[in-house]
Amino acid sequence: MGNKQTKKVYIVKKQLYIIKGGGKMAKELWDPFKEMEEFRKKVDKMFNDFWSTSVFPKNLRIREPLVDVIDNKNAYVAKIDLPGVDPKNVVVNIDKNKVEVKAENKVKKEEKKKNYFKKERSYTGFYKAFTLPEAVNAEKTKMDFKDGVLSLTLPKLKLPKKKVLRLK
C-alpha cells in the first residue's frame, strides 16, 4: 500500500490527460497527443535534413517545376514552368490520365584570352509527373511554349455513356 502509485484518467476539453503520481505528490498532466506531435515534428525534421543534402552539386540536380492545372468543361489546361529551357529539349508523355514532363537545359560557356582559358558547363533537369482525374485524348493534345512556360491543352476522353441492357 505504501509505494503504490495510482493513475487517474480525465477527459479535459476533449483531450486525454493522465495524472502521474499519487498521494501527496504534486500532480503533473501528461498529454500523449502533444508528445506524438512533437515526435512527428522530430521525424519530419530528420527526413527533411536527410533529403536536403545531396551528393550532387546544386547545378546538377533535377528540379520539379511548378504546375497549374485548370479543369475546363471539355479539357484540362496545364501550365508548367520551365525557365531557361529550349522547347526542343521538352518531352511530354501521356498515358490515359497520367502526364509526365521531362526537360533539360545544358549550358556551355567558353572564354579564351591570351594566356587564359575558361570553360564552364551546367545542367538543369526538370521532371514532373501528375495524374488527372479523368483520362485524356493524347492524340488531340495541344502544346505551346512561350516565355519559359509550357502550356498543355489535354482534351478529356469521351467515354461511351452507361448503357443498361435487359433481357426480353
Distance between the termini: 83 Å
Question: What sort of overall outline do the alpha carbons produce when their principal axes are compared?
Answer: flat
Strand runs, count: 11
Please state the CA-atom Rg, rounded to the nearest Å. Answer: 29 Å
**Quaternary structure type:** single chain
* Strand order in the sheet with the most strands: 4-9-8-7
* CATH architecture tag of the largest domain: Sandwich
Structural class by SSE content: mainly beta
Instruction: Tell me the fraction of residues in β-strands, as a range.
Output: over 45%
Number of helices: 1
Q: Can you tell me the CATH class of the largest domain?
A: Mainly Beta
What's the pLDDT, averaged over the residues?
81
What letter string, H or E per element, gives the SSE order? EEEHEEEEEEEE
Instruction: Note the main sheet.
Output: 4 strands, mixed
What is the domain total for the residues?
Answer: 2
Outline the structure in words:
Strands 4-9-8-7 form a four-stranded mixed sheet, with no helix packed on it. The chain has a four-stranded antiparallel sheet with strand order 5-6-11-10, with no helix packed on it. It starts with 7 loop residues before the first strand and ends in a 13-residue tail after the last strand. The longest helix has 21 residues. It is mainly β. It has two domains: 45 residues, no CATH class; 98 residues, Immunoglobulin-like (Sandwich), CATH 2.60.40.790. It is flat. The protein has one helix and eleven strands, in the order βββαββββββββ. A hairpin with a 7-residue loop joins strand 2 and strand 3.
